[in-house]
Design brief:
- This protein has helices spanning 2-16, 20-49, 51-62.
- By secondary structure, it is mainly alpha-helical.
- It has a domain at 18-62.
- The longest helix has 30 residues, at 20-49.
- 0% of the residues are buried.
- The mean pLDDT is 83.
């Protein structure tokens, strides 16, 4: 575990010693993919948590006499 903290410390020291204009591309190159992966993970977790709710809504709206799907315009009867 000590080698990992030493490596992280060495990389951090190297980045801090660089110019601001070198730090920005490094930061973007690391944070953009990381944020992309975290957003994808959050999306999958929320989709998994709401899976029963969305399936039930689809099943109810597909049945005759069931409630209309969300956003449906009522007929003029």
């Amino acid at each position: 575990m000590a080698w990992l903290t030493a490596t992280i410390d060495a990389v951090e020291s190297w980045i801090v010693g660089q110019s601001f204009w070198v730090q920005i591309p490094i930061l973007l190159g690391v944070l953009l993919p990381l944020c992309w992966l975290v957003a994808g993970l959050i999306d999958r977790v929320v989709e998994w948590l709401l899976r029963n709710h969305t399936r039930r809504e689809r099943a109810l709206s597909s049945r005759p006499g069931g409630p209309p799907p969300p956003g449906a315009v009522p007929s003029g009867r």
